Amino acid sequence: MAQPSESSANSAACEGYDDIKWDQIEFGIVPTDFMYIMKCSEGEKFCDGSIIPYGKIELSPSAGILNYGQGLFEGLKAYRTEDGRIVLFRPEENAQRMKIGAERMCMPSPTINQFVNAVKQTVVSNKRWVPSVGQGSLYIRPLLMGTGSVLGLTPTTEYTFLIFTTPVVKSYHKGPLNLVVKDGLYRAVSGCGGTGGIKSITNYSPAYKAANEAKAEGFSDVLYLDSATGKFIEEVSTCNIFLVKGNAISTPKAEGTILPGITRKSIIDIAVDLGYQVEERAIPVEELLQADEVFCTGTAVVVNPVFSVTYNNTKAKYKTGSGTVSQKMYETLVGIQTGHIDDTKGWTVQI
Ligand code: COI
């Protein structure tokens, strides 16, 4: 298949676009046309990546990623704007977060420019998969992984940076969330052993068991408490959390155990601009139960209202729907991402 040229990236009417069955796309993996791959050896720098057809990759059974989970991932999206452009949202923030994570996981990382350029090339190659404006986005998944062989517990000798994409049309969650908080259930530990503040691959599958149990009990997901005291809220397995009380919007401070979400950071700035009093601080779970509104943020979930939080024998219910702060946050964020609202902060990067 011929690789589309960069100059035609902005055309909304892409060749092949009409062949895609957009209404059948759920939130999940839809294989797109191309992916990006770049390798480097231990002690060297990444250089010379390339776009290749999307497909399986070969891994040694002794690869560091398979045996000891030496890996990171990122998540960002490409959007079509109302005037037909394709834009990324703050990709250099993902690049920076991957760099910080790579340092923690003893891996080399692509430079910020390499990361952003690789993302652009991947999106250009897959531009027919970027949904039309207002219909969704192209989810971009950069991976950084130890692909060299290893037996002893030590960083491996070869690293691979790979980016694949998948279109997302439907929302991650089907509506407002009903979360559960359980004593003794933690996502991340504080101190030097913890990796809660980076997007380490190993942070995510350990949450499956708790989430599956919560779903079996009729909840959407688990909201985790801090492991040091068991008193303060941290995050949901897929997203950060905010509460609204009057004119104040609060979110747990992203310090070590909490992922510093890029949507989280953007919502904080938007809320300040809209005149809310914004606080990043420790939030006791009891305070959450007294909030007017609660919402979650993340690349995948965007801004998702929370309908209820259950903790011990209390089920707190919150405002959702029209006129809520979370709706205003959603509309402002998505408005900037799709060019409906002026991007005065320079958050969008045109491809
Ligand atoms: C994202 O929001 O992009 C994430 O990485 C969360 C993921 C678990 C779906």
UniProtKB/TrEMBL annotation:
GO molecular function: branched-chain-amino-acid transaminase activity
Similarity section: Belongs to the class-IV pyridoxal-phosphate-dependent aminotransferase family.
Identification of the protein by name: Branched-chain-amino-acid aminotransferase
Keywords, ordered alphabetically: Amino-acid biosynthesis, Aminotransferase, Branched-chain amino acid biosynthesis, Pyridoxal phosphate, Transferase
Annotated organism of origin: Lupinus luteus
Cofactor: pyridoxal 5'-phosphate
Pathway: Amino-acid biosynthesis; L-isoleucine biosynthesis; L-isoleucine from 2-oxobutanoate: step 4/4; Amino-acid biosynthesis; L-valine biosynthesis; L-valine from pyruvate: step 4/4; Amino-acid biosynthesis; L-leucine biosynthesis; L-leucine from 3-methyl-2-oxobutanoate: step 4/4
GO biological process annotation, one example: branched-chain amino acid biosynthetic process
Enzyme Commission number(s) of this protein: 2.6.1.42
Alphabetized InterPro entries for the sequence: Aminotrans_IV, Aminotrans_IV_CS, Aminotransferase-like, B_amino_transII, BCAT-like_C, BCAT-like_N, BCAT_family
Swiss-Prot/TrEMBL catalytic activity: L-valine + 2-oxoglutarate = 3-methyl-2-oxobutanoate + L-glutamate; L-leucine + 2-oxoglutarate = 4-methyl-2-oxopentanoate + L-glutamate; L-isoleucine + 2-oxoglutarate = (S)-3-methyl-2-oxopentanoate + L-glutamate
Record's GO cellular component terms: cytoplasm
PTM sites of type N6-(pyridoxal phosphate)lysine: K199
